Amino acid sequence: MCSNNAVGDLFFFPPAAAAESSLRLLSSVAQEVKGRGTISWIDCGDTESRKLCKKMKVDPNSKEEGVELLHYKDGAFHTEYNRAVTLKSMVAFLKDPEGAPLWEEDPEAKDIVHIDSEKELRRLLKKEDKPVLMMFYAPWCGVCKRMMPSYQQAATELKGKYVLAGMNVYSAEFERIKEEYNVRGYPTICYFEKGKFLFHFENYGATAADIAEWLKNPQAPQPQAPETPWADEENVVYHLTDEDFDKFIKDHSSVLVMFHAPWCGHCKKMKPEYEKAAEFLHAASDSPGVLAAVDATVNKALAERYHISGFPTLKYFKDGEEKYTLPHLRTKKKIIDWLQNPEAPPPPEPAWEEKQTSVIHLAGEDFRESLKKKKHTLVMFYAPWCPHCKNAIPHFTTAAEVFKEDRKIAYAAVDCAKEQNHDLCKQEGVDGYPTFNYYNYGKFVEKYTGERGESGFTTFMRTLRERDHERVGKKKDEL
């Protein structure tokens, strides 16, 4: 055992003979993390240790490789180690137990050249005759994660002609590299020929085909024309500011105001409908009101005064006073129809966790303890605004109802949009919504990637319960 006062891993093994190779690996890991982590092992085949393994619900024989690896942090169970059983991956995990897995652990990334040090980078650029496309990235970067599958596919398809490489340069030790190649954000993708940097590749939504096409004729990114602010475009929407807002609202008895942000996709989608409605109202002799807009990223005092937290937000003002917030008005027809007969909007639908269902809603502080009470738990990590989540919620809820009488099964949910759950969702590997994780007595087993309907969710659980019954029957036969 190699021990210290930081974090610890407990490794549960079957009889020692079967664990020999694993012990050699763990000894190497222990040397690498000395002073930062603890490596321990327990032989579950030993008479003395068998009771402890049983008490902790550990059964290495249930694992294909015959080894169960658990991580403990601050004296409590943290998570099951489910990454690659290699020196590099285990050391990376112990240095940052809540960080993302190494990119090279993804089997689809086998044709990416993974660079770990400045020395390796210099060697690659010096010795490689083929053109090199290098992605400098950070493990937490969402844009990087979304681009990686296309980048991996391109690496496989272009193998032998080009080298596609990746390097995690988030650490402070790589400041010199970041300065040299102008890495100001992630990802930064650089193109090299014969070791010389030539261009940046800036199509972060590129497909594998896009990457291949660009590599045929690599060139510097074309400068993009700045987007014209909505207020500077020709339209009949009144664009208000912190300075003139109050006077305008007082001078007009009926005003619908759209608070927006230039980068907001939903705002851009709604803008043409809003402009068409404004044109209709502007031309009408008996117009029921006017339409205005506020760029909340520029006019921050107004955004703060009216508690704008999402975009677009529509507010209706009558005789100078705020009266309603109207989330349901998104088309020209709905806007005009509503202004002709202004009524209070229907009350917002209760949040999922406020409804009476068989889904257990968890938060950071009670997450692990709640999961430990159930043998099989499928957890849905979601955000209330996510369309795919909204589609899945009714099916997930119905599946939970099907198994509500089974004391060993639970369907649970975590709202990742809540600040209190941010760290938990990151820790559990959530990088998109919805994410479904399966846990066995609180230990992560696998991600659920099946069909997101009631049938998919229930079939998954039925399969697990059938396996339970088969194991019980097998034990009875052995007795």
Automatic annotation (TrEMBL):
SUPFAM superfamilies: Thioredoxin-like
Protein name: Protein disulfide isomerase family A member 5
Family: Belongs to the protein disulfide isomerase family.
Annotated Thioredoxin domain residues: 94-220, 221-344, 345-466
GO biological process annotation, one example: protein folding
GO-annotated molecular function: protein disulfide isomerase activity
InterPro entries, sorted: PDI (IPR051063), PDI_a_PDIR (IPR046374), Thioredoxin-like_sf (IPR036249), Thioredoxin_CS (IPR017937), Thioredoxin_domain (IPR013766)
GO cellular component terms given for this protein: endoplasmic reticulum
Originating organism: Anser cygnoides
